[in-house]
Write a structure and sequence with these properties.
Blueprint lengths: L1 H23 L3 H4 L4 H13 L7 E3 L2 E5 L6 H10 L3 E2 L5 H10 L4 E6 L8 E2 L24 E5 L2 E5 L6 E6 L14
Parallel strand pairs: 4-8
Antiparallel strand pairs: 1-2, 2-8, 3-8, 4-5, 4-6, 6-7
Length: 183
């Protein structure tokens, strides 16, 4: 049941992001020859049920760790331009998976900038499960409002700090997870 809720939320997020991208770039995909490789990649992805090049698949979701660093906002903007958002970690299996490939500190989609101590994910859901480091979150110096993944745990960190980030998205070949597909 939890997987289904997660997948439905991911699909809603994917639709919102796609609508934002469409509004932002209306018509540019069909008019620009620079986007033809993206169109071919999307078509190939739909046929093979894999994630795009550079992304890693876990369950029915694709993950990407950036190669550049920036603020939490820059990371989120980059994820959105990729048709994704910063990762929302829903269970221990997903946390363990991220631990298997995220080898350095990175932004995750967790933030408490609206109300201190009230952590929310980028999809609007409240944090119900956590993997905080000891004595965290601590809002050190009153300036730690963004979620950082570090050494298989979470830490609150200043949002303006420069870190890599982890993006998450549903692959284009599915509108929801399919637990029976053997993935």
């Amino acid at each position: 049941m939890e997987i289904t809720k997660h997948c439905v939320q991911l699909e809603l997020n994917r639709r919102k992001i796609n609508q934002l991208l469409l509004n932002q770039r209306r018509g540019s995909l069909t008019q620009s020859s620079n986007h033809r490789p993206l169109q071919r990649d999307l078509a190939a992805t739909k046929r093979t049920k894999t994630c795009p090049t550079g992304w890693t698949k876990f369950s029915c979701t694709c993950y990407f760790v950036s190669t550049k660093s920036g603020s939490w906002d820059e990371g989120r903007k980059d994820c959105i331009t990729r048709g994704a958002d910063l990762v929302v970690i829903n269970d221990k299996e997903e946390q363990d998976f991220i631990s298997s490939f995220a080898n350095e500190a990175a932004w995750i989609g967790l933030i408490d900038n609206e109300t201190e101590g009230s952590w929310k994910w980028v999809d609007g859901t409240s944090m119900t499960l956590s993997f905080w480091r000891d004595n965290q979150p601590d809002n050190w110096n009153g300036d730690e409002d963004c979620g950082q993944y570090i050494n298989k745990q979470w830490n609150d960190h200043p949002c303006a700090a420069s870190l890599k980030w982890i993006c998450e998205k549903l692959p284009p070949w599915t509108c929801c997870c399919c637990p029976g597909d053997g993935q």
